[in-house]
Amino acid sequence: MHNTILNQYCSWLSPMSNRILFGTNGIRGIVNEELTPEFVTEVGIAVGTYFNAGNILIGCDSRTSSILFTRSAVSGLASAGCNIYEVGYAPTPAIQFAVKHFKMDGAVIITASHNPPEYNGIKVVAGDGVEIPREEEVKIEETFFKKKFSRRKWNELGKAVSFPGILDVYKEAIKKHIDSEAIREKNFKVVIDPANSVGALVTPYLLRELGCSVITINAQLDGNFPGRLPEPKPKTLGGLAKTVRATGADLGIAHDGDADRCFFVDELGNICLGDKTGTIIIDYILQRFPNSVVVTPISSSRMLEDIVKRRGSELLWTEVGSTMVSKRMKEVNSVIGMEDNGGIFYAPHQPVRDGALASALMLEVLANSNRTLSQMIDQLPKYFIIKERIDCPNERKQKVLEKLLKQTENYRRITVDGVKVFFEDGSVLMRPSGTEAIYRVYVEAKDEERAREIANWGISLVEENL
Ligand code: MG
């Protein structure tokens, strides 16, 4: 427990201060303010020092600064003796897959994922294709801040070569895990919105090869993100919903900026929450893999627990963050995991979020269920949801958490990240935000009255401890 609390404390310190570079998904910052070419070059040397002159893949999303920072990182990595294989524009999961497939020592991905256009970032991936865990990030941070760089002599520098072709390898790998015939028979019409970024390079081609009739919007690479902001959410997906309705499509698919996540729009043009579509995919996979362990962050809906139990499987709640889900999946040999933000992790392919794989899986679910997505969503367990935020200075978060832990001792609860208390007919998660000076209170219950009752209890518990 002590370690968990300590980790939580670290997570709400702002990155790049207090000798911390990495946030929950790599290094992020505003271009030419926090993230400058010289900063990225030094991070490159630190990462190269960590990989000890290994073979490193590098690729990026479509941001205006991505190619520039790729070159900075390549300089740093080569100066530390690493050989660099440049894949250019590619979805994050394609690079993660290629690292393992081509037996590289690691990868550096220049992307700020779902952040606005003025941001960019750096993800560091280990040889197994998963982002490096916190304890390894600390080693890179120490090298960076103490400047303990392993700069190589002139005749020991790394080489950088271009390494095309990973997108086809990745696409073919996904097909091996998909019931292509079932999808092909349905002649689905699908609209894809990759947010003017790298999802455009794989998902439309993959689905066409699976026999779908594909319509794309926002599919030209453009770091100004003229179509919509790169975070897929109801606010940014109006264009996709409209296009699904206008074209009578069976499904709409939206990716975030590096295409590791996937949001869906049903055939009626409704934008679906990640909890619901993730639960539908997991319900399907559990029929193929009974008695499995499913992994999901504590912020996911309790609806998933109902479905997993109904299938006789087990649900493991983790801290919030995709790397935590991947890590736990590997530890417990889990087949499938999900996040409420549209992340699907399917271990037989790779235990990381994968937007293209999630798209193909959803089509397989629709093909084999003979139902539409809206019909499948209608059949999910129903919960009434209340989300509240309570102002709480960062320096008070820890104290509040300690008191909450004490006060909820006698309830069925999970304390991996904040406190989630379960009742027979509902649940409440009280969790300090990782990025804002607030506590989030997230309630689910069978009806509105009960949800309000539980919310009042959770809110008063946080407030009396402020
Ligand atoms: Mg992403």
Task: Write structural notes for this entry.
- The chain is α/β, with parallel strands linked by helices and 466 residues long.
- The chain folds into 4 domains: 11-168, Alpha-D-Glucose-1,6-Bisphosphate, Chain A, domain 3 (3-Layer(aba) Sandwich); 187-271, Alpha-D-Glucose-1,6-Bisphosphate, subunit A, domain 3 (Alpha-D-Glucose-1,6-Bisphosphate, Chain A, domain 3); 273-381, Alpha-D-Glucose-1,6-Bisphosphate, Chain A, domain 3 (3-Layer(aba) Sandwich); 384-463, 2-Layer Sandwich (TATA-Binding Protein).
- The chain contains 16 helices and 20 strands.
- The chain has helices at residues 2-11, 37-51, 66-79, 92-101, 134-146, 166-175, 180-186, 203-209, 238-247, 274-288, 302-310, 322-332, 355-369, 373-378, 394-407, 448-464, and strands at residues 27-30, 55-60, 83-89, 106-110, 119-126, 160-162, 189-193, 213-216, 251-255, 262-265, 293-297, 314-318, 336-339, 343-346, 350-353, 384-391, 412-414, 419-423, 426-432, 438-445.
- Strands 1-5-4-2-3-6 form a 6-stranded mixed β-sheet, with helices on both faces. The protein has a 5-stranded mixed β-sheet with strand order 12-11-13-14-15, sandwiched between helices. A 5-stranded antiparallel β-sheet has the order 16-20-19-18-17.
- 52% of the residues are buried.
- Mean pLDDT is 94; it is low at 1-15.
- The structure holds magnesium ion.
Bound molecules: magnesium ion
Percent of residues in β-strands: 15-25%
Mean pLDDT: 94
CATH architecture label name of the largest domain: 3-Layer(aba) Sandwich
Task: Please count the helical segments.
Answer: 16
Q: Main β-sheet, in a few words?
A: 6 strands, mixed
Shape: globular
CATH topology of the largest domain: Alpha-D-Glucose-1,6-Bisphosphate, Chain A, domain 3
Helix/strand-derived class? alpha/beta
Strand order of the largest sheet: 1-5-4-2-3-6
- Classified by CATH, the class of the largest domain is Alpha Beta
Query: What are the low-pLDDT stretches, counting only 5+ consecutive residues below 50?
Result: 1-15
Q: Report the radius of gyration as a whole number of Å.
A: 22 Å
Count of strand segments: 20
CATH superfamily of the largest domain: Alpha-D-Glucose-1,6-Bisphosphate, subunit A, domain 3
Give the CA-CA distance, first to last residue.
21 Å
Total discrete domains: 4
Helical residue percent band = 25-40%
